[in-house]
Amino acid sequence: MVEDNMGELERNSLVHELTQGRDLTRQLQAHFHHASPSSSHEAQERLLLRILLSYNSALSMLSWNDASGLLRLSPGKNPTSRDFPEPDYKEHGGTDIDNNSIGDSGNNRKGMPRWTKRVRIPHGTAIEGQLDDGHSWRKYGQKDILRAKHPRSGYYRCTNRGSQGCLATKQVQRSDEDPAIFEITYRGRHTCSHASISIDPSSSLPENENSNDVLIVEAQPQQQQHQQANLEQRKDHDELLDFYKSLAIITEGSSKNTLAAFSLPSIPSELHQLYPPFDAFNFSEDVTTCELFRENQNFHSQEDSKLDPAVFAASSVATSSRTNSRAADARGSLDYILDPAEFNTSSGNAGISSK
DNA sequence: TAAATTTGACCTTT
DNA sequence: AAAGGTCAAATTTA
After folding, report:
1. Which domain of life is it from (predicted)?
2. Burial of residue A176, with CB atoms counted within 10 A of its CB: 0-12 exposed, 13-18 middle, 19 or more buried
3. How many Å from the CA of A100 to C1' of B10?
4. Is A326 helix (H, G, I), strand (E, B) or coil?
């Protein structure tokens, strides 16, 4: 409908993002050249973050446009249709099927990013805490998976789905081989504003202060000293984390080389410390798998009957810190890009809201 | 009593 | 047709 205008608009946005990225890079370059002791690592990282976000935004635009044949991500062979599915708002005349199951998925290639992370949870640790990714989820189903040893798969969707139309979902399943590992598959990015959630960083830490015993896969600072500073860091890092995920998703099918261009070396060292998962980031053909294997062998004790309920307990009390971070600023533009794509599902879903 | 989960049926995808 | 994914009534929990 608005193709041409949209194209124009997005092109401008794209140019804007790239220009901004270039400028920021120059600033960063200046930091290096002048190497003034005053140019703190923090400042540099901030620049870096903004640069990355700019790239991310740009890539997002390219991805959406790609469907319309406007631009191509990689020169080489082109993505199969799997990587970035194209924003296919199927508009056959009439209703898309019915209100039954269309709202969120039933179709995983709807332009919804998808990634999986595997979490190893040592016995005796707070499982909910580990699976808590900062969002609140509502369980809507559970399924026995056929040939899985632990044939239970829990299905969750964002609690803000009804109120804000957030389409993010996740599936939690226990690994076949290692019962201590949970595979969490996310679909769709959150478009909600994480409303009304207060995070209590200390409470997310294990009761035994030995935080090394706990594997933290997503954003959870391990130090607790400067909580305030940490909180702020966490926001930025959250964004960065998200960024890497989406980057990987954008890139994955199109070309591994593209990925290489952005690859991990550019991750600030601090991030490596805070987010060990990055050390083991690897990209499989279908999903981005963030694997975390940190050997914690000082665990014994019973597990069988203990751990199974974990799958069901996977829903979590949401926690999120999001107020005024520069990362949030940068992200604003990102949301601007991502939102519209997912928002044509206003059709009521009997699922939740209506009560 | 409202909100969240459980669970078998039903729908979609492969 | 079978397996995966979602719905929604029933049930449980806060």
Report:
1. Eukaryota
2. middle
3. 10
4. helix
User: Under DSSP, is residue A59 helix (H, G, I), strand (E, B) or coil?
Assistant: helix
| Separation between the CA of A355 and the C1’ of B11 (whole angstroms) | 22
The answer to whether the CB of A194 falls within 8 A of the CB of A322 is yes
Cβ-7 Å neighbors of strand B = A 97-98, 100-102, 106-109, 137-143, 154, 159, 312, 315, 355
Maximum alpha-carbon separation in chain A:
64
H-type alpha helices, A35-134? 41-67, 127-131
Task: Report the distance from CA of residue A142 to the C1' of nucleotide B7 in Å, as an integer.
Answer: 8
The structure tokens listed for A252 are 């994955």
CA pair distance A271, A301, nearest whole angstrom? 33
Tokens, residue A192: 């909600």
Digits of tens for pLDDT over chain A (355 positions)? 433 444 555 566 667 778 888 888 888 888 877 766 666 777 888 888 778 777 766 665 554 443 333 333 333 333 332 333 322 222 222 222 222 222 333 333 455 778 777 777 766 555 555 566 778 899 999 988 877 666 678 999 998 888 888 888 999 888 777 777 888 888 887 877 654 333 322 222 222 322 222 222 332 322 233 343 444 444 445 545 554 444 443 333 333 333 333 333 333 333 333 332 332 233 322 233 333 222 222 222 233 323 333 333 333 332 233 333 333 333 333 332 233 333 333 333 333 333 2
With H, G, I as helix, E, B as strand and everything else as coil, classify residue A210.
coil
